Amino acid sequence: MGYDAYVSCNCYREGKTTEPPHKKHLSVETEGLFINLPEKTWYYKLFPNKLYQHYNEFDEWKRTACPHEDMEFASERIANITGMANFRYVVKKLSGKKNLNTLLAQLPEANGGFLPVELAQDFLHDLRRFEESGEQEEIISLTERVSGTVLWQSDGPFILDGRYKLYFGLDNNGFYIADKQNVLFRAWNFRQVTNKDTFTFINNYTGYEFISPRRIYPPEDTGELQKYYDFQCERFSVNVAEEYKYIIDSLIKLCQAALETGNPVIWC
């Protein structure tokens, strides 16, 4: 899961596409071209396979109707969930000092929605200011030592367990496990031990132990579990423009496409 976005082309509006199937049901919307077939009519109720066929015919037409696949003038993968959360956190910290109000307000917080083309220029200016800021950010990272997997970077919780009301995260003092009132476990270097039905977190320096109903690694949908996992927190500084260059570059391309076409950036 993560964040993607696209900007539609103008080929249909400019008469540069082949003729669409089922044109009388064509709908031009903010997100692009769609068809709205009368699904509740007797015909489609009697022949439901025709409904799927007609939608598929339109989708295939849209994919090849013009030089832009799926009629997308630009399409970009922006970031995964963690990357966007970290980027948004840094933008928020710098917003007041660098005047990044449009960037902060318009960054997607979920899949769906759009950046209006009227705001694309201001959004682009904010991206350039962020890019040229020269700001350094102190990063706290959490790494599983054997695999080298980085679980999280930056402040804040990276697991919010609603079932057990536990928070697993990082701050200036390293890794922590907390509930709403108290920090229950803290360490810079620690182990996760797999028990029968629980997981024991052990501070490698102090030996303090905390038994948790859930693990932090590997992900919950991974079946195979080792007995021990070893983790280390580290603190280091990075240039924010370099750290988030992959996000900035994608967003700049999308803004430029919006300004060129006059169409919004669609978050998806």
Attribute tags:
single chain, 268 residues, six-stranded antiparallel sheet, four-stranded antiparallel sheet, globular
Short description:
The protein has 268 residues and is α+β, with helices and mostly antiparallel strands. The protein has helices at residues 42-46, 48-64, 81-98, 101-106, 117-131, 240-243, 245-261, and strands at 2-8, 26-29, 32-35, 72-80, 114-115, 136-144, 149-153, 156-161, 166-171, 174-178, 183-187, 189-194, 199-203, 209-212, 228-239, 265-267.
Topology, element by element:
Blueprint: E1 2-8, E2 26-29, E3 32-35, H1 42-46, H2 48-64, E4 72-80, H3 81-98, H4 101-106, E5 114-115, H5 117-131, E6 136-144, E7 149-153, E8 156-161, E9 166-171, E10 174-178, E11 183-187, E12 189-194, E13 199-203, E14 209-212, E15 228-239, H6 240-243, H7 245-261, E16 265-267
Antiparallel strand pairs: 1-4, 1-16, 2-3, 5-16, 6-7, 6-15, 8-9, 9-10, 10-11, 12-13, 12-15, 13-14
